[in-house]
């Protein structure tokens, strides 16, 4: 049994319930559909579900690796032919156009669909924007994480030139950047 969010009142309800216990909203049709709230609009994602379920389990795994590569969470290309890679890329581009997302965010949205087993969830195409505040908390410009450390660059051009320069390193996504840039 999993808990879902009621679209009417926002309360937590069992996915097996026929109606929300808080407000009485009928839930059966919501649970049975493959929907996703993409950028504040409910979208039907059954075409994605049908395509992925038509793949063999091995190809589903390769498709997930392909999507991780496109989103930037992996640097490893799946061991597939160029024709299959092109097919995956075409499908992802088709869905990016359908849902008005960039290819990067379409890949992330499809990965989230797979992770949520094609049940209703919310996906927003939002890039992190650092808040304009005077706090001294360092945040990753890529993912917004505050789990940031500094590391020394190492040896410079002639051994000592540039050896004491520091770079920030995000512990969550691995992004490196120069402080203040």
Features:
single chain, 181 residues, alpha+beta, 3-stranded antiparallel β-sheet, 5 helices, 33% helix, flat
Explain how this protein is built:
The chain has 181 residues and is α+β, with helices and mostly antiparallel strands. It contains 5 helices and 8 strands; from the N terminus they run ββαββααααββββ. It has helices spanning 28-32, 46-54, 57-71, 82-98, 103-115; strands at residues 3-5, 12-14, 35-38, 41-44, 121-123, 148-152, 166-170, 176-177. The strands form 3 sheets. It has a 3-stranded mixed beta sheet, with helices on one face. It has a 3-stranded antiparallel beta sheet with strand order 6-7-8, with no helix packed on it. A two-stranded antiparallel ribbon has the order 1-2. β3 and β4 (41-44) form a beta hairpin. α3 packs across α5. The longest helix has 17 residues, at 82-98.
